[in-house]
Design goal:
Aspartate Aminotransferase, domain 1; alpha/beta; Aspartate Aminotransferase, domain 2; 430 residues; globular; four-stranded mixed β-sheet; seven-stranded mixed β-sheet; 13 strands; 15 helices; 2 domains; single chain
Length: 430
């Protein structure tokens, strides 16, 4: 079905572990054996063209980083101007202060900012800042915080991570204040920070985020919100603005650059300011990412981006739920970040059914993802209609497969293999 993607995948795997630099982009996320595209050639707006020339409605959008849509003209033009002026001059540029000012206007806790390139790097820096500010070494974590050693050590499987890291970070379950307080008591005097994703697909119970903040401060720890995903999607100021709970520090990424590499650590001045603390990178002040961030933040400020995400996501959820009526599928999460999820009680059958949906949707020009859908400013009525038509056909195939008991037979190749974030989240919640 995808001969050029299959050829390129074989070539890539001979040269690159897994065939991709990002686990969530690996072909195995849609199933092995040619059941889905594996390589893109170009993208524009809400659409992507694969290596075989097929066009898709893209509901992944750079794993959630391309909130404005692929190849956004205003952002790209800002980047091109910076490249022509030198993307990385020897001295700092005014862009650093420009972007920091825009973040201070938008994000409640962002009195000061430090810039890096990835969400993992931002979380690493936030951990160091918290340790320096408190004189403590331990972190309590909830959610997904990248591939750093200290975070990976909280998972059941973490090859390559020194065993000593297991003593420096511990996971606690979401929406469980008793568990968090128990961990704070058990490690009293050692916890530098409580770091969590304020939400993703599960909504916080009333008072949960406020309770996390109060407990952290009661035990002398800082509160860090990992807003790499929620920043600029739940609200311009992120989940902290949406839920009205302001952390001491926050990490930002993904939507900050609309596909260009840029991430940030933001927080209270007295925590962020110490000169003795080293968080320094050759590319921290690099111009391409900062130019993109400046353009992106200006667009968020003047256009109803977040309102659009919520409206389109709500319609995606409504139409998808209607098409899947009577089947073991739900759309959970928030309208700005919905997720099509199989609820079959048998885990292996659920994996087969979800694989079938992903493959059959791709065959009809709709690219969905195991890790949920990412609504963009470029999605609109045409993309919703095209997706709804495709999913009606997809779920008809699912009904037939369930009725006949021949789910596996309808798959091309193997079912999907879960990526790192999914594995990490499941390990955390267990």
């Amino acid at each position: 079905m995808y001969p050029e993607s299959t050829r390129l995948l074989a070539r890539a795997r001979a040269l690159t572990p897994g065939g991709s630099q990002t686990l969530s982009r690996q072909g195995s996320m849609w199933g092995e054996g040619g059941g889905a595209p594996a390589f893109a050639e170009r993208a524009s707006g809400a659409h992507l063209w694969d290596a075989d020339g097929r066009r898709y409605v893209d509901w992944l959008l750079g794993l959630g980083s391309v909130i404005l849509g692929h190849a956004h003209a205003e952002v790209d033009e800002a980047v091109i101007r910076r490249i022509r002026d030198g993307s990385h001059p020897t001295l700092s540029t005014r862009l650093e202060a420009d972007v920091a000012e825009l973040l201070a206007e938008a994000v409640p806790c962002a009195e000061m900012s430090r810039f890096v390139k990835t969400g993992t790097e931002a979380c690493m820096a936030a951990a160091r800042i918290a340790r320096a500010a408190t004189g403590r070494d331990m972190l309590l974590v909830c959610g997904y915080h990248g591939w750093a050693d200290w975070y990976a050590a909280t998972k059941a499987k973490h090859p390559g991570v020194p065993a000593i890291m297991e003593t420096l970070a511990h996971a606690f379950p979401y929406n469980d204040l008793d568990a968090l307080e128990g961990a704070l008591k058990a490690h009293e005097g050692r916890v530098a920070a409580v770091m969590l994703e304020p939400t993703l697909y599960e909504a916080p119970k009333p008072g949960f985020l406020e309770g996390v903040r109060d407990l952290a401060h009661r035990y002398g720890a800082l509160l860090i919100f990992d807003e790499v995903v929620t920043g600029f999607r739940w609200a311009n100021g992120g989940a902290q603005e949406y839920f009205g709970v302001v952390p001491d520090l926050a990490t930002l990424g993904k939507g900050l650059g609309n596909g260009y590499p840029i991430a940030a650590i933001v927080g209270r001045r007295e925590i962020m300011d110490p000169h003795a603390l080293v968080v320094s990178s050759t590319f921290g002040g690099e111009g391409v990412g900062l130019a993109a961030a400046q353009a992106v933040l200006e667009i968020y400020r003047k256009e109803p981006v977040v309102k659009h995400l919520w409206a389109v996501g709500a319609e995606f959820a409504r139409r998808t739920t209607e098409s899947a009526w009577g089947l073991p599928f739900v759309v959970d999460g928030f309208p700005c970040k919905p997720r099509l999820k199989c609820t079959d009680e048998n885990p292996e059958r659920a994996r087969l059914l979800m694989s079938l949906v992903l493959q059959q949707a791709a065959a009809r020009g709709v690219l969905l993802h195991l890790g949920g859908e990412n609504i963009s400013y470029a999605h609109g009525g045409a993309e919703l209609y095209e997706t709804a038509v495709a999913l009606r056909e997809v779920f008809a195939i699912v009904r037939e497969a369930l009725a006949s008991g021949k789910i596996r037979e309808r798959l091309v190749g193997e079912p999907y293999v879960e990526g790192y974030r999914v594995i990490a989240e499941e390990g955390h919640r267990a």
